[in-house]
């Protein structure tokens, strides 16, 4: 009997080893550490779906189970539909992920970064930290209730100053700037405002997931070639201005296409692990709601999650290689799910 058990565990161990060895290297893995948040951004699904929202933290055990795969991943981003600094084990997660040799980053609203946490962050060795903004000054504060523009800029400056004091290069300080249509007239203020804060680059995005029809007008996804060229011209000018100020500026502008086989989320070589252990192609595939909700970018459609397994039942390489997940990656763009079909992140690869 003992021999049979030893044989069983040996085979199980070998299978796990083989699954890991034959899993392709993932470009990036987004790990949602929590869905709890101290802000109430009016465009966020957490606000729109607040009556059915699941507040939860990723278990430390599930995170540790990911470490063998993290070691084979180029970059891990510790953030999902919540504020990462609310998780009690965030700094331990950063340390463990860094020990694997992987690059590690996170995105924060900045409101919980006091001097003690900033010091911890710099000493943790994390590679990059992004601060979320939506608008300049009061417009940010109105769009992102619970945050304060001046405090976020101060946190950026304090982080840059602490890096300088310790003579270290990391973390790189980024700004994740969500551009709403109503804020487009103020976009010229962006570079002058950030140039002297210590931020090193700003990444501009538009509202990709529209949780309610009342937010449709805030989406800036171009609907045709003319709109695409107009927005690209605006962003190109900003990029040139930022370069003169020593600030990197990036944008990921695409012309959405329901026939597009490419996606800015790179679902063939990237994945999302939710705080409940679910594995999805991207963060939009597993919004933590417990009841039926609707999206509203073009017309109201019922939201259907895309989940291929859970860490509580199987480990990640086996989920990645499961028949359904392999079929999804192989056929992406040919027979898309209802969620992917209307997603503005899908585009024709020739753009």
Top keywords for this entry?
351 residues, alpha/beta, 9-stranded mixed β-sheet, globular
Helix-strand sequence = HEEHHEHEHEHEHEHEHEEEEEEHHHE
Question: Roughly what fraction of the amino acids lie in strands?
Answer: 15-25%
| Mean of pLDDT | 89
Q: What is the radius of gyration?
A: 21 Å
Span of the ends, CA to CA: 62 Å
Sequence stretches where pLDDT stays below 50 over 5 or more residues: none
General form = globular
As laid out across the biggest beta sheet, the strand order is: 9-8-7-5-4-3-1-11-12
Specify the biggest β-sheet: 9 strands, mixed
Which percent bin holds the helix content?
25-40%
Which structural class best describes the helix and strand composition?
alpha/beta
Q: From the structure provided, what is the oligomeric state, counting identical versus distinct chains?
A: single chain
Number of strands: 15
Number of helices: 12
Written overview of the protein:
- Helices cover 34% and strands 16% of the residues.
- Strands 9-8-7-5-4-3-1-11-12 form a nine-stranded mixed sheet. A two-stranded antiparallel sheet has the order 2-6. It has a two-stranded antiparallel sheet with strand order 10-15.
- It starts with a helix and ends with a strand.
- Helix 8 (190-194) links the parallel strand 7 (172-179) and strand 8.
- It has 351 residues and is α/β, with parallel strands linked by helices.
- It has helices spanning 2-21, 45-48, 60-70, 90-99, 115-124, 138-143, 149-166, 190-194, 225-244, 316-320, 323-330, 338-341, and strands at 28-31, 40-41, 75-78, 103-108, 128-133, 144-145, 172-179, 201-206, 248-251, 262-263, 270-273, 279-280, 294-295, 301-302, 346-347.
- The chain has twelve helices and 15 strands.
- The mean pLDDT is 89.
């Amino acid at each position: 009997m003992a021999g049979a058990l030893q044989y069983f565990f040996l085979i199980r161990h070998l299978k796990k080893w083989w699954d890991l060895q034959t899993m392709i290297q993932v470009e990036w893995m987004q790990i949602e550490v929590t869905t709890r948040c101290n802000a109430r951004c009016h465009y966020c699904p957490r606000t729109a779906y607040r009556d059915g929202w699941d507040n939860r933290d990723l278990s430390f055990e599930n995170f540790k189970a990911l470490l063998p795969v993290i070691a084979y991943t180029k970059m891990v981003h510790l953030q999902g539909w919540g504020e990462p600094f609310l998780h009690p084990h965030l700094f331990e997660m950063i340390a463990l992920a860094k020990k694997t040799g992987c690059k590690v980053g996170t995105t924060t609203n900045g409101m919980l970064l006091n001097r003690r946490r900033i010091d911890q962050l710099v000493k943790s060795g994390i590679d990059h930290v992004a601060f979320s903004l939506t608008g300049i000054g009061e417009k940010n504060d109105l769009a992102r209730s619970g945050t304060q523009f001046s405090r976020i800029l101060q946190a950026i400056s304090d982080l840059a100053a602490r890096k300088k004091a310790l003579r270290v290069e990391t973390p790189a300080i980024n700004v994740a700037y969500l551009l709403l249509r109503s804020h487009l007239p103020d976009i010229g203020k962006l570079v002058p405002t950030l140039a002297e804060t210590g931020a090193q680059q700003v990444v501009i995005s538009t509202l990709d997931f529209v949780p309610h029809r009342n937010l449709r007008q805030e989406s800036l996804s171009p609907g045709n070639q003319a709109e695409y060229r107009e927005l690209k011209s605006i962003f190109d000018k900003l990029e040139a201005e930022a370069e003169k100020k020593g600030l990197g500026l990036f944008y990921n502008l695409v012309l959405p296409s329901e026939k597009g086989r490419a996606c800015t989320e790179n679902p063939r070589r990237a994945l999302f692990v939710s705080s409940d252990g679910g594995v999805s192609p991207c963060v939009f595939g597993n919004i933590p709601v417990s009841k039926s909700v609707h999206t509203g970018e073009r017309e109201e459609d019922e939201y259907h999650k895309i989940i291929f397994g859970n860490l509580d039942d199987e480990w990640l390489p086996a989920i990645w290689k499961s028949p359904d997940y392999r079929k999804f990656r192989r056929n992406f763009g040919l027979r898309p799910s209802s969620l992917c079909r209307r997603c503005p992140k899908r585009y024709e690869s020739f753009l």
